[in-house]
Amino acid sequence: MSQDTPGSTTTAPATGVPSDQQGDAISNLLHENRTFAPSPEFAADAVVTAADYAEADADRPAFWARQARELLTWSKDFDQALDWSNPPFAKWFVGGEVNAAYNALDRHVENGLGDRVAIYFEGEPGDTRTYTYAQLTDEVKKAANAFESLGVEKGDRVAVYLPMIPEAVITLLACARIGAVHSVVFGGFSAEALRSRIDDAEAKLVVTADGTYRRGKPSPLKTAVDDALSHEGDGSGHTVQNVVVVKRNGQDVDWHEDRDHWWDDTVGTASTEHTPVGHDSEHPLFILYTSGTTGKPKGILHTTGGYLTQGAYTHKAVFDLHPETDVYWCTADVGWVTGHSYVAYAPLINGATQVMYEGTPDSPHQGRWWEIIQKYKVSILYTAPTAIRTFMKWGRDIPDKYDLTSLRVLGSVGESINPEAWMWYRDVIGANKTPIVDTWWQTETGAQMIAPLPGVTATKPGSAQVPLPGIAVDVVDELGESVPNGHGGFLVIREPWPAMLRGIWGDPERFKDTYWSRFEDMYFAGDGAKKDEDGDIWLLGRVDDVMNVSGHRLSTTEIESALVSHPAVAEAAVVGAADETTGQAVVAFVILRGDAVDSGDAIVQELRNHVGKEIGPIAKPKTILVVPELPKTRSGKIMRRLLKDVAEGRDPGDATTLADNTVMQQIAASLRK
Ligand code: PRX
User: Fold this and answer.
1) How is domain 132-277 classified at the architecture level of CATH?
2) Ligand 1: which residue has its CA nearest to atom 4?
3) 22 lines ligand 1 (CB under 6 A)
4) Do the bridges between strand 583-592 and strand 569-579 make them parallel or antiparallel, or are there none, so unpaired?
5) Tell me, what's the pLDDT at 608?
6) CA 544 to CA 524: how far, in whole Å?
7) pLDDT tens per residue, range 57-71
8) What is the distance in A from the centroid of ligand 1 to the CA of 542?
9) What distance in Å separates the CA atoms of residue 187 and residue 173, rounded to the nearest whole number?
10) What is the pTM of this model?
11) Gap from CA of 440 to ligand 1 centroid (Å)
12) Is any ligand 1 atom within 6 A of the Cβ of residue 526?
């Protein structure tokens, strides 16, 4: 793992602007000390006050225990808030039993909220569906019965490969209801990627759809499932017994009578009677694969009680949720952790009304999102900086055409939001009055960790600012010592938190090595960060070989492995280069094999497609440069820092540690050709 010091010129800016400009912009803002205090009206009506910080500081586990009891209905109360006797393996709310689906659904109906809208669904072609809490509860009960009738039992794994349609949320909650462990694979991943995740989790059931829509055109999904299951993998076959298929876009699909079932024929015909049972607080809720620094994705494991508690608390506190009146919209796909925590679970646990949209922001026109906000009177929007920068490029006259006055809180997640985008978001989308909450967290943390509280914190453009109540975040130096204000270092978490990952599926050693070995007794997040003079935290991007493209994590090593698996490639090095819109973009440097011909664009296109097939379209390099050599140290380690300089158009500077110091000249010469 490369350990560049965060804040140095070698560290990737995660904001889409070159690091020196970013530095200028940030220091100007810091210099101006420009912050936006909550309005008195907002603060007066805020659901959470500063008292939560003090309460949590006084007794962290007790604070979380109170949240757990207030936000969830336990089938059996817990005896102990936290068991940290065997670090890094935490147990939260020990002895308690809780059912996630009952908490998200049935209890709201029992409390008289059955007619409240849970989901307004907006399909890409313009079809719509509305589910009240009562209707969604029935659908989840039907799915739970159907999955059980297909032999799914508590603890079994279910792979989910679905678009952003209500059936995705229904599937997740149905799994949670019966204690099956879902493993969602984002629809942008390939058949190969899906298969490796099915194998790793030994999934028994796959839930998918015929396809979805992308920019007005049908886009298939089931074909990837068929491909994934037709491969014999390592020769031992696969574990999948059944595939349930939602009919979404009506396109033709191959059918395997012994394995495939239409959703409408199984779930559609199942009974709406299903009694939920409490599951142990530490019962596994889901696995979600994420890229690490090696070629093999990690199956991040989350359990039930702690995950739901922190998700529900942060959703309420950070978005200032008033569930009776707010309409909440998180634009994340259910294939990512944001779509788990802040679409499938927390909003429903909190009894909120939410919008779910299937498609892209520019289909059929670039005002689609603003049209949706106007139509449903969305009051809380949670999205990613890459989307905001795209809208900035399209111009403010597009959102200006719509009535966005319903908005009262704007959230950001996935990467640092550069101050310019932050200001645009506030000014153009938020009418210069709506608080912006920049939320830092990870698949591993399960829920938000650093974010302002909109009724309490004076917000600062570009900074995620302060750890949430009950969360112990710090920035430390190489030796693990806390850095003073005004300094940069590594982001760590000092104390266990309820939604923390409980491990990597099937690999406890990797869990310890990856997160707990860099600093003693602290979780190392892999991010660089800086504390400003006020102690506010600024995220500076990853310090390991993980890239962040449009807020999605991709591993350099994984893409390099995909490239070298192509017969024409001898060696490959991948870097994340700053990109105006996507934060970072994948740039690959490849050396072709002696017998492969450099056919220019043709080979580049072929390699891009090859990566698409191996990992998925999201991982396709934006640029592939064919080079004669790669810069390596004397011990053979590729110096990605130098390649990053080249990819970002900078002079690589000092190359004296290279085994062959003419390499950079050779690369420069080959790029001039
Ligand atoms: O580098 C950080 C960045 O995204 C990483 C986590 O990615 P993932 O597990 O895919 O989860 C993304 C959605 C929670 C982090 O290690 N990141 C996420 N949010 C922010 C961020 N970087 C800066 N600011 C953020 N608000």
Assistant:
1) 3-Layer(aba) Sandwich (3.40)
2) 414
3) no
4) antiparallel
5) 96
6) 11
7) 999 999 999 999 999
8) 9
9) 19
10) 0.91
11) 6
12) yes
